[in-house]
User: Fold this.
Amino acid sequence: MMSEPRRLHPAAVIFSVIKIFKNLIYVIFAGVIAWFGNTTFMYIALGILGLTIILTGFSIVEWLRFRYYIKDDELRIEQGIFVRKHRYISKNRIQSIDLTQGVIHRILKLTKVQIETAGSGLETEASLSAVTFSEGEAIRRELKSNQSLVDEEQDESEAVEYPKRQISFNRLFVAGLTSGSVGVIVGLVFIGFSEIERFIPDSAYDQAMSWLLSSAVELLIFLALVVFILLYALGILGTVIKFGRFQITRYDTELFITRGLLEKKQMTIPLKRIQAIGFKQSLIRQPFGFGTLYVEIAGGADGQSANARTYLFPIIRYDELSQFLQTVLPEYEAFPEQVQAIPRKANFFYYIRAAFFPVVALIAILIFLPFVWYVPTILVLLAVGLGILRRQTAGYSWDDQQLTLAYRDFSKDMVMMKHNRIQAFEKRQSILHKRQGLATVRVSLLNHFAGRHVLLKEMAESEVDRLSDWYSLRK
Assistant:
């Protein structure tokens, strides 16, 4: 039992300083860029040094004033320098307890404990930034209302075999290869180069540019190809590091997920918090049948933002979903083999909606800059193609217990919801929709602070009315 007040590990001071600087990094970076090489740069550097000393001192005092312990089935936390705060979290309210190990945590054999309750919203209810890993596991065991996790010290003969799924290295490599993160990395590289460029001497910069311009086209293409391959490899490496050793285990009342090579995360997902299951396929992954399986969770998870999702499995083929759900989440039926398409008279709305702004840009370019007409023309063609894809993707399916909606922004998304998890159902209809006998469906789910809203546009109005009857249980 942990009935006596305890302090966090002293490394909590380091994590506190790092957290503060992460929030100030853009301000500090902007100051260094603006004043580098200036006579006032020394004062900026001294100011940063002084700020570091002050923040370190503040973090030490904060660490000394922080206490936690478990008593009377409650996690009690005392914190605050000038104003003392006492928090009492009953273990009966706790929804999940997640353990996270960053690089520093793993070197020092520590872990971060994040505790969430039903009312946590976007932030965790309580966070212990640095405790020993054995102590973190002890806290989790002691606070669990239902001991669904197998005690690691339990004798193998007494241990229960729970269903689990792991990701192979080949699938992890495919996930990195099709993640599309190379675009983000290229953007970051260009932004970083644009900032570093100002520190390069003009003579060196001019010599480099002269050499590039005088080089053969073949050499330039080769260099561009090498850079692209390196950036792509970096994107694959990032995916492997993030989802390496991914494993999901099904216990009696929750799912237990571990992942990460450098930063190891252990996350619990209570089944009662799952509001919907989604399968997302990017334009790269869809032709090969791959996609990401995720869940929408009431109250958030793992400190994620409102738009973030909790991965149930980072990459899986569509034809493997049925077996996966039977093993890990049998409460949900398999995704439908095919969905009911929306009517053809919806085509006009999908095409116009996708191409409207590119067409306006094309008209403006033809009037003012006619010599670059091909740029907006290509954009119009791409937009029309996207509209066609969205029209082909849109569909729906439902039975007595579940509703599945399929739609597309850029990636195809299928969301499967149980009837009793839908918070609200809304029918939307404009004048044009009314004349065409169409309507838009908006289904609301409980997820994070603002909720998740799934829209399927231009369904047949008669089908929307039937779906409304299904939701309200009218006959």
